[in-house]
């Protein structure tokens, strides 16, 4: 490779040729970053202040801290039920998306079969199908299946919309794992399935984290499907519950903010944990997608 | 290298994905096209039946809201995608540098990506409201006036919605472009430094060409997503005031959720799908996606 030719030169060169002007100075990073952080964090802060400060307060500090808004939305407005529903839909979508995409993505990466190319093109096309426009036909299908007002309708719709991207990500990632590693396992007497679990699966962790968290966050956040397919209040998910709070917003800003915190905390926590893997998973999957 | 020992295995593995997508994506898409040729109104079942191109005739010639919402969709998508790309690219370049606090900064600036459209609305309603919002506290210290209400004023509602969506949308580009930035070989930069290339020249000649395909793909995905996304506008402005912020999918959603005129809603859907597909193909062709420069 040509890199071996370049390496000795480039190793010696930087100390001599790199001028100070070529380096980024601290303020060139911290100033724009600080400004952008303000834009990102002030809105979050606003929500937290309104959620935790007492009613009628005008302070911009959430002090004295009170949980009365949370008690009100959690028990009085049914957010405990919305929370459970969202959690159920999120976890079920995560599991079904990951399992189906894992099987399909492995097949796409490791086998050359008839219809593979057609499937890949079809999958790309589905990226242009808009969720809002599937409301009417999906509603009809779920009505036929008796799934209107069932949380499973949401799980199915979420999974299907997450599948194309998940399949692309996982198959790109499997391709990056040398087949020789698997072959070595087969030589040692592993079946293809055992080889997969022993060799491939552990190396797929970043991809699985990316796909799983995408699926969870998207279904946790989905509004339109939940609004359309579910009409009974005890089946509402958090975004629908929150939208109804917004509808009555002139009345109760504290409740709106507290409901927002309830909806935000799980996804923001999940996201904080996985965002490192997300960038890794995407950069590895993107290369040979 | 692919090893095909049992010819049936790949089909078994991919079957669940195929079945799910055929049943809940391809079939519904086909049925939308079918319904678009029908009179189909849940509230007026006596009129249901084959309509031919009647729905499309009404849509093209008798429905000013179709053209208005299509026009607003274009404006919304262009403004959002361009601004999100510029801010997202700048942000990705910044957090790709090495500095103290990088990991925390990344997690914080990316975090709005995980927030839903409805929640974004909730937060920005608090910020924009004249009695609870940002502008009221500015007025307290003598900047601006107490009756600044960005969402109620027809002259500022567009900008207000754009800013709220930017807040949530910029991290998408920042994450994707950062992922791609990390695959640039450091040796290229070193070689360019040796040749005496400035930072700006290195950005133009190494970074941008490397990012080209990622930028094309992410802008396209985002354009499609922004075109289709209704959560924020549906809850933030409801498409108002006076349909000023109604996108085409928002119009479709309103038809589906509120008026139950499924036939005409399907015609709108089909029209939007055609616009989107045509745009996507043209964009990929014109931008020479995947071409090596």
From TrEMBL, chain A:
The chain crosses the membrane at residues 29-52, 87-109, 118-139, 151-174, 195-217, 253-274. InterPro entries: BP-dep_ABC_trans_perm, MetI-like, MetI-like_sf. Residues 83-274 form the ABC transmembrane type-1 domain. PROSITE patterns: ABC_TM1 (PS50928). Keywords: Cell membrane, Membrane, Transmembrane, Transmembrane helix, Transport. GO terms for biological process: transmembrane transport. It is found in: Cell membrane. It is a multi-pass membrane protein. The keyword Transport applies. GO terms for cellular component: plasma membrane. Pfam families: BPD_transp_1. The keyword Aminoacyl-tRNA synthetase does not apply. CDD domains: TM_PBP2. Belongs to the binding-protein-dependent transport system permease family. This is Carbohydrate ABC transporter permease. It comes from Herbidospora galbida.
From TrEMBL, chain B:
Gene3D superfamilies: MetI-like (1.10.3720.10). One of its GO terms (cellular component) is plasma membrane. It is a multi-pass membrane protein. It is found in: Cell membrane. Its main location: membrane. Keywords: Cell membrane, Membrane, Transmembrane, Transmembrane helix, Transport. SUPFAM superfamilies: MetI-like (SSF161098). One of its GO terms (biological process) is transmembrane transport. Pfam families: BPD_transp_1. The chain crosses the membrane at residues 12-37, 76-95, 107-127, 262-284. Residues 70-285 form the ABC transmembrane type-1 domain. Belongs to the binding-protein-dependent transport system permease family. This is Sugar ABC transporter permease. It comes from Herbidospora galbida.
């Amino acid at each position: 490779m040509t890199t071996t030719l370049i390496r000795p030169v480039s190793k010696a060169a930087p100390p001599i040729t790199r001028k100070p002007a070529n380096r980024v100075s601290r303020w060139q990073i911290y100033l724009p970053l600080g400004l952008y952080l303000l834009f990102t964090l002030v809105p979050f802060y606003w929500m937290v202040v309104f959620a935790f400060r007492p009613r009628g307060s005008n302070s911009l500090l959430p002090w004295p801290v009170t949980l009365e808004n949370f008690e009100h939305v959690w028990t009085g407005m049914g957010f405990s039920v919305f929370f459970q529903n969202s959690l159920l839909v999120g976890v079920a979508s995560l599991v079904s998306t990951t399992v189906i995409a894992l099987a399909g993505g492995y097949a796409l990466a490791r086998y050359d079969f008839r219809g593979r190319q057609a499937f890949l093109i079809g999958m790309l096309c589905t990226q242009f199908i808009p969720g809002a426009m599937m409301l009417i036909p999906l509603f009809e299908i779920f009505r036929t299946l008796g799934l209107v007002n069932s949380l499973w309708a949401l799980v199915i719709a979420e999974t299907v919309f997450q599948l194309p991207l998940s399949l692309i990500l996982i198959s790109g990632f499997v391709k990056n794992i040398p087949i020789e590693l698997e072959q070595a396992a087969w030589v040692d007497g592993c079946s293809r399935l055992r080889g997969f679990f022993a060799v491939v699966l552990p190396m797929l962790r970043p991809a699985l984290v990316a796909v799983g968290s995408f699926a969870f966050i998207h279904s946790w956040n989905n509004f339109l499907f939940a609004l359309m397919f579910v009409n009974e209040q005890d089946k509402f998910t958090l975004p629908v519950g929150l939208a109804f709070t917004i509808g009555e917003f002139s009345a109760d800003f504290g409740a709106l903010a507290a409901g927002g915190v309830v909806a935000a905390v799980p996804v923001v926590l999940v996201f904080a944990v996985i965002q490192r893997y997300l960038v890794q998973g995407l950069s590895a999957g993107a290369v040979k997608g | 290298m692919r090893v095909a020992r049992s010819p049936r295995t790949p089909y078994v593995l991919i079957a669940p994905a195929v079945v799910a997508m055929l049943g809940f994506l391809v079939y519904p898409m086909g049925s939308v096209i079918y319904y678009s040729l029908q009179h189909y109104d849940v509230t007026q079942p006596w009129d249901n039946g084959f309509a031919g191109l009647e729905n499309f005739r009404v849509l093209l010639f008798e429905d000013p809201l179709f053209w208005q919402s299509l026009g607003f969709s274009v404006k919304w998508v262009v403004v959002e995608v361009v601004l999100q790309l510029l801010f997202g690219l700048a942000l990705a370049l910044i957090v790709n540098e090495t500095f103290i606090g990088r990991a925390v900064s990344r997690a914080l600036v990316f975090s709005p990506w995980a927030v839903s459209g409805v929640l974004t609305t909730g937060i920005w309603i608090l910020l924009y409201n004249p009695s609870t919002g940002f502008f009221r506290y500015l007025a307290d210290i003598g900047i601006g006036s107490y009756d600044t209400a960005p969402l109620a004023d027809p002259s500022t509602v567009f900008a207000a919605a754009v800013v709220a969506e930017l807040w949530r949308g910029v991290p998408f580009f920042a994450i994707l472009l950062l992922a791609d930035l990390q695959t640039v070989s450091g040796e290229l930069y070193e070689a360019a430094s040796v040749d005496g290339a400035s930072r700006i020249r290195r950005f133009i000649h190494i970074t941008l060409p490397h990012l080209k395909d990622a930028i094309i793909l992410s802008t396209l995905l985002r354009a499609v997503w922004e075109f289709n996304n209704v959560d924020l506008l549906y809850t933030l402005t409801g498409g108002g005031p006076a349909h000023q912020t109604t996108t085409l999918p928002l119009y479709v959603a309103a038809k589906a959720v509120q008026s139950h005129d499924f036939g005409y809603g399907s015609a709108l859907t089909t029209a939007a799908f055609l616009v989107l597909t045509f745009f996507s193909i043209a964009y990929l062709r014109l931008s020479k996606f995947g071409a090596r420069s």
